[in-house]
Amino acid sequence: MLQAQNLSVAYHGQPVLKNISFGMQKGEILALVGPNGSGKSTLIRALSGILPVSSGTISLSGRLMSGFSPAERARQIAVVPQGIQLPPAYTALETVLFGRTPYLNFLGQLSADDERIAREALARVDASPLSGRRVGELSGGEQQRVLLARALAQSTPILLLDEPTSHLDIQHQMTLMELVHKSARECELTVLVALHDLNLAARYADRLALLENGELRAIGKPDEILTQETISRVYGWPVQIVPHPFHGTPLVLPR
Question: If residue 216 lies in a helix (H) or strand (E), which one and from where to where?
Answer without folding.
Answer: strand 215-220
